[in-house]
């Protein structure tokens, strides 16, 4: 057997090992002054009717603690009619404010400074898909979520690293299912791409089916993010 063949076999074995056994810590790295802008599209289908909501979310990091937690200002770039629809859809979950501030953690979780502020679906989906421990290719983890009367289990799977718009990203696929007593019932999928270098969400695509009696709305959601301002500091 030639040295070239042996070299190729060794390289293949090393790449296979890297893919299946290497662990990855997926966390969001936040720096003062860093800003990300997300272009969001909601498509809501109900009883043969369809509504499309489009808007932008701008997150700006204001302060960062030594442990990586940060104070983030969130601004919606949205027309008044779309804002009204979002506020109506939030119902008893809270208020969708055009400008709000959040305590954000490296694991994707967020807490509003003003308790009455409702989390947007972009934030809810993001914090549910981040793993809270290092993960290998194919590894799964589960998390439960209660938002008002909606109770769900989100089971996520790390599917490796792939390029999205010339950026290396962690790909995570999640499935959503209702827990007993949830109102409405819900099921669906989330596909998230998390920037490998920065740990911010680059893209989330979700499809959700809800059931509450005779009402069965279907929601398709897509958010694409990019850095629009960066700190002079390096992570």
Task: Explain this structure.
The protein is α+β, with helices and mostly antiparallel strands. The protein is built from 3 helices and 11 strands. An 11-stranded antiparallel beta sheet has the order 5-4-3-2-1-11-10-9-8-7-6, covered by helices on one side. A hairpin with a 5-residue loop joins strand 2 (49-64) and strand 3 (70-77).
Structural category: alpha+beta
The appropriate CATH architecture is Roll
- Beta-strand content estimate: over 45%
Largest sheet: 11 strands, antiparallel
DSSP, total strands: 11
Between the first and last Cα atoms, what is the distance in angstroms?
47 Å
CATH class, anyone?
Mainly Beta
Going across the major beta sheet, what is the strand order? 5-4-3-2-1-11-10-9-8-7-6
Per CATH, what is the topology? Answer: Lipovitellin-phosvitin complex, beta-sheet shell regions
Mean pLDDT rating: 85
């Amino acid at each position: 057997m030639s040295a070239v063949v042996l070299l190729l076999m060794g390289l293949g074995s090393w790449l296979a090992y890297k893919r299946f056994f290497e662990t990855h810590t997926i966390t969001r790295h936040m720096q003062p002054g860093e800003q990300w802008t997300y272009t969001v599209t909601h498509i809501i289908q109900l009883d043969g009717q369809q509504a499309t909501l489009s808007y932008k979310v701008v997150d700006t990091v204001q302060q960062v603690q030594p442990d990586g937690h940060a104070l983030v200002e969130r601004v919606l770039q949205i027309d008044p009619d779309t804002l009204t629809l979002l506020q109506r859809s939030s119902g008893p979950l809270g208020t969708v404010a055009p400008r709000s501030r959040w305590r954000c953690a490296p694991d994707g979780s967020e807490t509003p400074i003003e308790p009455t502020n409702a989390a947007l679906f972009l934030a809810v989906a993001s914090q549910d898909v981040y793993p809270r421990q290092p993960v290998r290719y194919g590894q799964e983890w589960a998390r439960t979520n209660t938002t008002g009367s909606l109770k769900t289990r989100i089971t996520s799977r790390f599917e490796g690293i792939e390029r999205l718009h010339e950026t290396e990203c962690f790909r995570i696929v999640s499935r959503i299912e209702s827990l007993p007593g949830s109102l409405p019932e819900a099921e669906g999928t989330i596909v998230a791409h998390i920037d490998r270098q920065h740990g911010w969400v680059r893209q989330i695509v979700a499809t959700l089916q809800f059931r509450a009696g005779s009402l069965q709305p279907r929601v398709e959601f897509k958010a694409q993010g990019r850095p629009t301002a960066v700190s002079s500091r390096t992570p």
